[in-house]
Structure formats: structure tokens, C-alpha cells
Design goal:
Blueprint (H helix, E strand, L loop, with lengths): L8 H8 L4 H13 L1 H10 L4 H16 L14 H25 L29 H27 L3 H7 L12 H8 L3 H24 L7 H14 L1
């Protein structure tokens, strides 16, 4: 992975600032991978499902125009950080636009205060049990990375004729593994219980490598892969 690091998608984008066809293709792939995190951020930020998806398309359309990516700082290294910052600005601008539209039209707006001013009428207290948009974005980003890595691993094994092997051992890459007897998997694959333990260990390692490879596409320095992997685990624990 390290030897080909200069060819990763985010490095291409940040180096060329989206000015050539190769960088635009890389940026398009990154945007596709981050569609779900952007939608859940916008949902948590107060939009309904349809509005969130429409705004997500608008956001990525602006990003893909070319000039928008010029705000990216390659020194920061992480596409996730850049995208979240750009998304916050976009969401704030959209709220300002919506509020301006509501204030227009020649309508008269009045503020009605509670007679008992001591109650602090109009004061809104955030519900601590509701996850913040940033945390929602990071959680969905983590789930998206895992899903893409799992799909990559599955494709590799099926291409090598080991689709049954993957189907049988997949539960040990998810939370379902603890509920599945290893002896049952061993019987399906014709392996001893010791051999199935080794097979599960190797598959988990390959999956972890696939996750790291997926993360590597979104950072500009190999040293950031470890940090992003830690961030992924932290997001899943919240």
C-alpha cells in the first residue's frame, strides 16, 4: 500500500486541485463514497429525507464543478475533514437562504413573548440524547468505509473462486460471529476446528487491510491512516 500511495484518489485531487480529468474522476469517486454520510448529516441538521438527498446532490454538484475544491488544504491531509468543513458552510448558507426567504414576501412578523419572562420563553435547550450532526457524519462515514472494504474483500474472494469461503466466514467480520458455532463453519468448509480458527484470523486480517486501503484513498499521507483508523473505531463506539 505504501509504494502506491502517491496514486490514491485524495492525493490526486489535492495535488491538482481538481484541474484535470484524472483528478475530477478521483473526486467523483470520493464524493460517491461520502454520499451517505452527507445525507445523514443533513438529516440530523433538520432536513427531512427528501430535502436532505436533494441538498446532498446540490452540495456535491458544487464540489464537482472544479473551483470548489481549491479550498482544500493538502497539508490537512484528510478528505473527511475537508468535506465536513465544506458541508457545514454549505448547510449554514442554506439555512441563511431559507430564513431570508421566509422573511420576504412583504409579510409582517411579530415576536410574542411569554408574559412570565422569568421562564426564559424562546430559549431552546439542546437535547443531550440527540447525536450532533458531526458525530452522525463520522458514524456513517465509518459504516460506509466498512461496507466498501467488505465489498472489496468479497469481490476479491469471489474472483479467486472462494465465494463459499467468504459466505461461510463473513459472520466473523460482523457482530454475528459470536452467535455462530465455529464447528458449524468448519463442517461446511471441510476443515478442522483449529484450521477454521486460522481461516477466521486470516480473513479478519484481510478485512482490516481492506479497511486501511479504503482509508488510504482519503488521506494525503500514509501516517494519517493510523489516525483515521482510530477515528473510525471511536466513531463506532459512540
Amino acid at each position: 500500500m505504501t509504494s502506491s500511495f502517491h496514486d490514491t484518489r485524495w492525493t490526486l485531487v489535492s495535488r491538482s486541485r481538481g484541474s484535470d480529468t484524472q483528478a475530477q474522476a478521483a473526486l467523483s469517486e470520493l464524493c460517491e463514497a461520502y454520499y451517505a454520510p452527507v445525507v445523514v448529516f443533513l438529516r440530523r441538521d433538520g432536513r427531512d429525507e427528501d430535502a436532505a438527498r436533494e441538498l446532498a446532490h446540490d452540495f456535491f454538484a458544487r464540489l464537482l464543478q472544479g473551483d470548489a475544491i481549491n479550498g482544500a488544504d493538502p497539508l490537512r491531509g484528510r478528505f473527511r475533514s475537508y468535506l465536513l468543513s465544506a458541508l457545514k458552510r454549505f448547510a449554514a448558507d442554506q439555512r441563511d437562504h431559507d430564513h431570508a426567504a421566509k422573511r420576504g414576501g412583504g409579510q409582517i412578523h411579530a415576536v410574542i413573548e411569554n408574559e412570565d419572562s422569568s421562564t426564559g420563553a424562546g430559549l431552546q435547550i439542546a437535547d443531550a440524547s440527540v447525536e450532533a450532526p458531526d458525530a452522525t457524519f463520522d458514524r456513517q462515514w465509518a459504516l460506509t468505509v466498512l461496507a466498501r472494504a467488505l465489498a472489496t474483500l468479497e469481490a476479491e474472494l469471489r474472483d479467486s473462486g472462494k465465494g463459499h469461503h467468504f459466505d461461510t466466514l463473513k459472520p466473523w467480520l460482523t457482530a454475528d460471529g459470536d452467535a455462530t458455532p465455529q464447528s458449524e463453519a468448519a463442517g461446511k468448509l471441510g476443515l478442522s476446528e483449529d484450521a477454521i480458527k486460522v481461516a477466521i484470523h486470516r480473513l479478519r486480517k484481510r478485512f482490516r487491510d481492506a479497511v486501511k486501503a479504503e482509508i488510504a484513498q482519503t488521506v494525503s499521507d500514509s501516517g494519517n491512516v493510523r489516525e483515521e483508523l482510530d477515528a473510525l473505531m471511536a466513531a463506532l463506539r459512540k
